[in-house]
Design a protein that fits this description.
The protein is an alpha/beta fold. 28% of the residues lie in helices and 25% in strands. The protein has three domains: 1-106, Rossmann fold, CATH 3.40.50; 130-381, 3-Layer(aba) Sandwich (Rossmann fold); 385-485, ANL, C-terminal domain (GMP Synthetase, Chain A, domain 3, 2-Layer Sandwich), CATH 3.30.300.30.
């Protein structure tokens, strides 16, 4: 298990585990003792590689775990230093004191565990085989005309050709590596012979991001929606206004996934020379469900997600949703490269990985409408769908509208208990400046843009909307905060 901030040791550990035929497991570095204990116990972890600044949490859970065979501490700066967990060995010492392991035969069916964020329930370990996972990385070989290597020798040759073509420049994952997209895209970059740049700060710093792009001539960066794109655009513009613009001429592609990325935080990047923005739709359980690609000159106001060939949209009764019907359905992703299921949760595995008409699909729970042209409008995750007055409302649709208000800097929409409506739609927002009349303005704006029943009944203003380090909304926190401010038990 990898309980680490972004650092070289994270990726080194992931690859080392694979070479040992062990199973790498991601751990959220924000987890405190009970959360950490749950994940380590649930995953049956026997080895924990952790950052020295987190040693006190490791020491606290150590007596409650019987599986541990080895604790490895990654050294830290003096100001972070806390006493090492009992029995832990130093990461660099472990390397220095041991000879390289002998080469062994490995299997493409060896596993990688990707634990979900747990923003709507307990984290679950998604079991990927290396065969399925690494098949997702073939896009990195597109400059070679679709050739995908099948042997180590071919992989080395392909990496050399990509460098000659100038297609293997450094990549930067702005999100924490314990987030699936950042981890997997970084592995993909290394698989094609490229370098991965990490940010040193433990909370996202947009200026550090742009400084790294400029210094290392990064060609591709990975972010997570507006939570990253908003501060990035603001920092770019602020640097220009100071007369100290960043040189981002090397940055050709920015990839996002996991949360909403609105046009207002795409356009500034395209205006400054980024050639392609890829807004991907996927999850811990399946990648590549749909994609929205934007390039300079595109009309971002009309952009829609294009379904991948392996993705369909099914109604709750199992029918395939007809384009233009206006009916909402759940995204289902087919193909050979799907996870095996959830570790130690057969019931949830059967619910998410379904066989429909003889085809196995991953159905993570994202709902969408299929438009007449075959594109989709994403509605949101069914598990956070709000039932208000007998109508279903998906939070992301309302969140996108609320964010159009000039004063709103972030927003999460939830349903809270209500005697009349069952659930009352409530926008939890952070604003720039004084709250003032922002609540009534947000409700009026929503009624202009959406059906009236989708407009918030309440607006709750907070200093900061809580999100995971990867930018995912914390819906449980938002419900609790809304109920607290509105005095609802």
């Amino acid at each position: 298990a990898m309980y680490l901030f972004n650092c070289n040791e994270y990726l080194e550990t992931a690859f080392a585990a694979m070479k040992l035929r062990a199973i790498p497991v991601n751990v959220n570095y924000r987890y405190l003792e009970d959360e950490l204990h749950y994940l380590l116990d649930n995953s049956d972890a026997e080895v924990l590689i952790y950052h020295g600044a987190l040693a006190d949490r490791v020491a606290a859970v150590q007596p409650r775990l019987s599986n541990f065979k080895l604790l490895v501490q990654v050294e830290t700066d003096e100001e972070d230093r806390v006493p090492a967990a009992p029995g832990a060995v130093g990461y660099e010492s472990l390397i220095a004191d041991n000879e390289p392991a002998a080469r062994i035969e490995r299997s493409a069916d060896d596993e990688v565990f990707l634990y979900t964020g747990g923003t709507t329930g307990l984290p679950k370990g998604v079991m990927w085989t290396q065969r399925a996972l690494f098949s997702q990385f073939s896009a990195g070989y597109m400059p070679l005309g679709g050739f995908v290597p099948s042997t180590p020798e071919e992989a080395a040759d392909a990496a050399e050709k990509l460098h000659v073509l100038g297609a293997a420049g450094p990549g930067l994952a702005a999100a924490p590596l314990m987030h699936g997209m950042a981890w997997f895209t970084s592995m993909s970059k290394l698989m094609t012979g490229g370098a991965v740049v990490s940010l040193a700060e433990r909370s996202f710093d947009a200026d550090e991001f742009w400084q790294a792009i400029q210094k290392h001539r990064v060609g591709m960066a990975t972010i997570v929606g507006d939570a990253f794109a908003r501060p990035l655009c603001n920092a770019l513009i602020a640097a220009e206004e100071r007369g100290e613009p960043y040189d981002i001429s090397s940055l050709g592609v920015v990839v996002s996934g996991g949360v909403m990325w609105t046009p207002q935080f795409k356009q500034p990047l395209l205006d400054r020379g980024v050639q392609m923005l890829i807004d991907g739709l996927g999850s811990s359980e399946a990648t590549g469900a749909a994609m929205m690609v934007s390039t300079p000159g595109d009309d971002l106001s009309t952009a829609r997600f294009q379904l991948s060939p392996n993705t369909k949209v099914f109604a709750d009764d199992g029918r395939e949703v007809e384009p233009g019907s206006g009916e909402a359905g759940v995204l289902a992703i087919a193909g050979d490269a799907l996870p095996q299921g959830y570790y130690k949760d057969a019931g949830k595995t059967d619910d998410t990985f379904r066989v429909i008409d003889g085809v196995r699909y991953a159905v993570p729970g994202d709902y969408a409408r299929v438009e007449i042209d075959g594109t989709i409008t994403l509605l949101g995750r069914g598990s956070v769908c709000i039932n208000t007055g007998g109508e279903k409302v998906y939070p992301e649709e309302v969140e996108e509208t609320v964010k159009l208000h000039d004063a709103v800097t972030d927003c999460v929409v939830v349903g809270i208990p209500d005697d009349k409506w069952g659930q009352a739609i409530t926008a939890v927002v952070s604003v720039d400046g004084e709250a003032g009349a922002v609540s009534s303005e947000i409700i009026a704006l929503a009624k202009q843009k959406l059906a009236a029943y989708k407009a918030p009944k309440h607006v709750v203003v907070v200093d900061r909307v809580e999100r995971s380090p990867a930018g995912k909304a914390d819906y449980r926190w938002a419900v609790d905060e809304a109920k607290r401010q509105l005095s609802i038990d």
